[in-house]
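User: quick one, fold this
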Amino acid sequence: MTPNDFADINAEKSVVGSLLQDSTCMAFLDMLTPEDYTCPEYAAIHQAAMRLRAKRIPVDTQTVLSELPPETHREMLMLMIEAIRYVPTTANAKHYAEIVRERSRRRAIKRICEQTIDSLGTEGADAAADTAMDALRAMAGGTSTRMTAAQVASETYDTLATIAEGKLPSIETPLCDLNTMMAGGLRKGELTILAAYTGQGKSALAQSILKKSAEDGYRGLLISREMSAFQYGLRAFSSICGIDSEKMLQAKKMDQEQWVAISDAAAKFSRLPIEFAFKAATIEDVRREVRSMRSIDLMVVDYIQILRANERFQNDNGRVSYISRILKEIAMDFKIPVLALSQFSRPQKGVVKRPQLSDLRDSGSLEQDADNVWLMWQPSGEQDPDTPDIYDGWYTSAQKQGERFLLLDVAKQRMGKIGTIGIGFSPKKMGFYSLEKGGRSV
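Assistant:
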């Protein structure tokens, strides 16, 4: 390959000339970053245009100059006039931008390959491959290691505008009260910890959230070393058709009508955009699974403490801290919500108490790394003093129906308030519903 295969200064000039004379070309600003240019002056003009767009100011030679140092005005004005004259028509602006982006990507791939070769002398092949794949994926996604204030301002403004239009940039759960408290649901780039004692339904709730998101059109990934494919499938069928999972295990006793319902449930479940990874034993495996997916909107991990790591640690606290940090990085790097399940430390025998953030098992870093922490627990009885007054009578009512009355504490929320909601859980049908609203969501 020749040097021209890695840079095209005329295409860069054409992009700048198009931006300066046609406002519709501003849409192409998101295709490129200042780092995509080989000419520093064109990169500065592009960056100035981004700041102007964030301020909602039209882009032309005079407004761009107002964003540049005064001592550069004469030189930059001549460059901009030359760029405008160079472009015969802005109709091909997208093509020019694609050329600039293509050359930039080639340069990036070349740098990654060179860095990977150099790293082989200091680290193992797997580590070098992981680093290279992460870099290649970041490049393929058009991401940069840095964002300007103008980019942050533009993204923030656009997100607020989306919320104002009623288009929530979050993934709803099947619990309307939880969605209200979370200002819509699970948000991109955030790590949410769902913690509970063993056998209290945290896996079932996570699966219900994943199923609801898939029904809404989001593509999900479930990482599990806790249960088998058959166990998850059985729970899914039960939640869809309403047949007790215990009855399904006694398949010989089911009638034709029940088999039809199960067949319909299987068909509905098979159409959901969910993928399962039952052999991802380490956090490094988890990262590879996410990376291998063409698109992903939500990841559920069941559960943190059971995952291993390739790194060696002196104790479980170090291992879990390392895992939680990588889960947070996955959420941010792939711009997806990550819902990770966790266990509480075992209470003293005979002691029943409301769980606290400090009860998260094996690591205080779970609380630090997580954007949100949900603590799910079952009150000790109808008179449990920690049960909010609005749920008086619900414990007894749930018991009579063979269901469970649970409380879910939003104990931490980086972008919102904390509080407690009551939820009902039907273990036989694997269904959850919000109590205050009365709407059953399975």
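User: anything notable?
Assistant: Residues 154 and 185 are 23 Å apart (CA to CA).
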